[in-house]
Description:
Layout: E1 3-7, E2 10-13, E3 18-25, E4 32-39, E5 46-51, E6 58-60, E7 68-73, E8 78-83, E9 92-102, E10 113-116, E11 120-125
Parallel strand pairs: 2-11
Antiparallel strand pairs: 1-3, 3-8, 4-5, 4-9, 5-6, 7-8, 9-10, 9-11
Amino acid sequence: QVQLAESGGGLVQAGGSLRLSCAASGSTFSRNAMGWFRQAPGKEREFVAAVTWNGRTTYYADSVKGRFTISRDNAKSVLYLQMNSLKPEDTAIYYCAADKRSWTVPGSSASTFGSWGQGTQVTVSS
């Protein structure tokens, strides 16, 4: 099982940018699809973005499409989320997660992800 640790969160004004990183330890990182989820206060955890094991295909929630970019560096075992044009409604705790399965196309359901980081807070002020 892979261990995950997010970083890069913080406070930013609306319209600004942040880049989140997720460092992975364990030998399976390069085999698994990876995803980002977020959870705002009083709301359920929601899918943000995902990327296939080889980084070639990406998936996004409609709410972030065109503003966020997910990428990965398998040589460094790091997952990224570049967030541009941030809005106050992007405020949440952001989690990275590893798909339970190897060599598969990721879904958008949290139930298909088996390893989670501790989360990093992103706050966007208006």
